[in-house]
What does this fold into?
Amino acid sequence: MAIYDLTKTPADSYDTHTHLNDDKLYHDVPAYIGRANEFRVMEMNIVGYDATGNERALEIAQAHDNIYAVLGFQPEDTADFDEAAALLLSHQLEQEKVVGVGETGLDYYWDTPSREIQKKAFQTHLALAKKYDLPVIIHNRDAFNDVYDIVKASGVTKGVMHSFSGTPEQALAFVDLGMHISFSGVVTFKKAEEVRDAARAVPLDRILVETDAPYLAPTPFRGKDNEPALVKYVIDSLAETLTVTPKALSEITRTNAHRLFLNHE
It folds into this structure.
């Protein structure tokens, strides 16, 4: 990894969506946490995606300070989200250090699971988020209209559009439903001007940052495995887009994350 100039972002940050529970990172969780802390990424959410991912997210969160778990089944794994899995998830959401439901949502890029299976699972996750008064973390790929309609019908009014890659109009539509908009390494990509336009449209108090590690590594690490330490590159790029300092954006996004996930005002 290239040496990062820590003086460029002299403020602690919060990676709101990372997968240290993924096989690519799970083998050496303490090292990734330590490197993140060196880069002043002091808090993070470990996000579940299936039964194993949820168990690992809980394990990691409960073993480390300032690390939290988000639990759910991502759209690609909803074929396994049967009644028993939903019951187990419901019990897991009651455990300490769980701060959200997800990731959940719709992904129409893939042919399987079917759209109906995905929709049913998404609705169940939203109901659990409402039951436990937890924010929902939403994965949306090629499914804007259905995601919007299902969230609106659910009555859920707090959550995150994870790794947002849509238009400014779509971002604001979700903001109007109460959602926060989270930006990942995509915002650093040369051809992602529409995503940067969306960032400019979103109110500062609704913006979050994430890595989605080990995926979506930011420039200049694109194509390599991502890790929480690299959220600093997302912050730098987004700060330039928004014409604020990296320090200010670190503080803004951390405050937003505290308010949403930890109920800190």
User: Anything to note?
Assistant: The two ends are 35 Å apart (CA to CA). The first helix runs from residue 23 to 26. The chain has a mean pLDDT of 95.
